[in-house]
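Q: Got a minute? One more chain.
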Amino acid sequence: TTRCDSFATNNLASFTGADGNFLISRNSATQAFDGTIDEVMVYNYTLNQTEINEIYRQQRRGCVLPFDGISVISNVTFCPDVYNIVDKDANGAIRVGDDGVDIDCNGSTLIGSLTNNGEGLSTFNVNDYTFRDCNITGYHRGISVNRGDNVTLLNLTLNNATLQLIYLERF
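A: Always. Here it is, folded:
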């Protein structure tokens, strides 16, 4: 069994197979990885050493650093802080990616850029989730819920949206 407490690379291409799938192996795609992998994070930009060190430090505290485009698929608690998350692709700075998750911002503030069509929290066809304890400011839409059932929003402060603080769409 292999154990690796932390690993970071700036070259994802070296871990991509000919079919475009992400590979983890010993020497080639035909030799399976014999170990345990937990809490994999893939970013849409290159992390610098300071960011890598901060992620490691925060994980040891038991919380997660939110980043632009994070897709939450299991219960998560963010590290309490102020985060400037622009939502570059206007699909949600924080995205709920699966049913039944609890997203606890832990009192954090998410700050968008009033110059784009970004959304602080975005969901599409996701049900039975909770979003709590968050301050959201400076987005086109603070929260955008598209086609979701049993959505719980608790202890949120939203302000300074260019279009809507909360957008709810149900078909």
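A: Residues 85 and 122 are 13 Å apart (CA to CA).
Q: Perfect, thanks.
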